[in-house]
Amino acid sequence: MLNDLGLRQPPNRIAHNEEEALVKAEEIGYPLVVRPSYVLGGRAMQIVHSAEALQKYMREAVQVSEDSPVLLDFFLNNAIEVDVDCVSDGKDVVIGGIMQHVEQAGIHSGDSGCSLPPYSLSEEIQDEIRRQTKAMAYALGVVGLMNVQFAVQDGVVFVLEVNPRASRTVPLSPKPPACRSPKSARAAWQAFP
Questions:
Q1: 107 near 46, Cβ under 8 Å?
Q2: CATH number at residue 155
Q3: Which domain range does residue 92 map to?
Q4: What is the pLDDT of residues 36-84, one digit of tens each?
Q5: Which stretches does the entry tag as region Disordered (predicted)?
């Protein structure tokens, strides 16, 4: 989907065992964010800077198998992480807010403070984040809530993660009066069964 929309993401791979992880890590390059394929709250997520550190992670931090792979993502040094929550009724997408993390990208959102509104992102970058969020919501056919995590590095926006569900940041997002289209927000909320 990201390729079809022309959106960027850090180079990434999936590995099912230690040997495969080491080969794929060399393809991507270090440093890497390594995590189990399904994790809540950032548990077992780690930044590794070398093959030795990756080997240690694979042997000590997780149990990897065909059914439980690890995700390897190139770590974007000095990037700004951003959380966006939106709601859609399938026709309109309303963005609640753009939240800038205080810590750099790579620190799990549950462990990072955030600022709303963003304190260092230009209007141009914020507009691009809005555009990308809406494009993904439409492409996924989202009806309900969606959360997107972005990283901004040197003025380039990267998609880190898309979750077609509520996230822990929803309570922090501005409510419809702060939205550009309260009528659309109300309609989106009413689309829930």
A1: no
A2: 3.30.470.20
A3: 80-190
A4: 876 555 566 889 999 999 999 988 877 777 778 999 999 999 999 999 9
A5: 168-193
